[in-house]
Amino acid sequence: MATRNAAQKRAQAKVEYNAFLAGCPSRQLLDRISDKWVVLVLCALGDGPMRYSEIARLLAGVSQKMLTQTLRSLERDGLVTRTVTPTVPVTVTYELTELGLSLHQMTRGLRDWAQANMGEVLANVEKYDAQEVLP
Amino acid sequence: MATRNAAQKRAQAKVEYNAFLAGCPSRQLLDRISDKWVVLVLCALGDGPMRYSEIARLLAGVSQKMLTQTLRSLERDGLVTRTVTPTVPVTVTYELTELGLSLHQMTRGLRDWAQANMGEVLANVEKYDAQEVLP
Fold it and tell me: What is the pLDDT of residues A56-67, one digit of tens each?
């Protein structure tokens, strides 16, 4: 039997990824990308490369620790690239990769959905909470 | 000036929802729906109504507390309905609302993306981790 390398094994296993299974790596990946900061960072970078400071300013309320952690995780998964330009002080720029751009389509949809249906959801929450206090 | 009711006020405010703003309710909504259990529950219910026990079985590894909490949050936002049938023991069935179905399109995309691109992400992670240990 011929020896298969890791890439071939992965290619063969491709059809078997199933996020419903607790041990499947796609469950962990889904956990990493199902995160409001990931969604907002990808939305921000959808318009083109941005400096760290620009992202931090746009994502009001994000802590430096959380943003750094989010960007590092996105870089590790190959969704963004990080470029350091030796200016004084150094400029750090983030940009979506092609893979990141394909995920951006999904996460932008999620963000747009939240903004578009906010009124209806608020009305539903009001109704639900009113029922809860009925005798 | 005419008195406006809450619905009218919300309708007028609709265009102003912006998840980049920390205080915007759409930021909180995005936080609620950017969650792997929400994504997986909506994926599961995309095929039709399901009993609580069926969802629990399909979503391997979810705790009862987490699943109950997730379903309650989805019900409060008006994304699923909960129907109790007085059998012995009682049957509790969950079903997507129309609003839930519209979100399902997005979350299914996210799950499918994770499963389809798992191989490429694993390769990226390997490469990143190998670079990290370079001198």
Answer: 999 999 999 999
Q: Compute the nearest-CA separation of A70 from chain B (Å).
A: 14
Q: B105 near A87, Cβ under 8 Å?
A: no
Map out the domains of chain A as residue ranges.
7-111
pTM of the model: 0.86
Q: What is the pLDDT of residue B135?
A: 58
CA atoms within 13 A on the CB side of A64: 1
For an interface test with A, the pick among B5, B24, B36, B70 (most A C-beta atoms closer than 10 Å) comes out as B36
Q: Which residue shows structure tokens 């350091």?
A: A84
Check if the beta carbon of residue B79 is closer than 8 Å to that of residue A117: no
Selected for mutation to probe chain B from A118, A124, A129 (highest B CB count within 10 Å) is A118
Cross-chain CB nearest to A34 (options B14, B39, B122): B39
Q: What's the ipTM?
A: 0.86
For residue A16, the model assigns a pLDDT of 81
CA-to-CA distance for B40 and B33, rounded, in angstroms?
A: 11
Cβ-Cβ contacts under 8 Å between A and B: the total is 172
* Selection from A87, A110, A98, A127 nearest residue B78 by Cα: A127
pLDDT digits (tens, 9 = 90+) for B40-92: 999 999 999 999 999 999 999 999 999 999 999 999 999 999 999 999 989 99
Chain A hits for B56, CB-CB cut-off 8 Å, are none
Nearest by CB to B26, which of A31, A107, A115? A115
Angle between helices A98-116 and B25-33 (to 10 degrees): 120
Q: Do B110 and A110 touch (CB under 8 A)?
A: yes
Q: State the fold for domain B7-111.
A: Arc Repressor Mutant, subunit A (1.10.10)
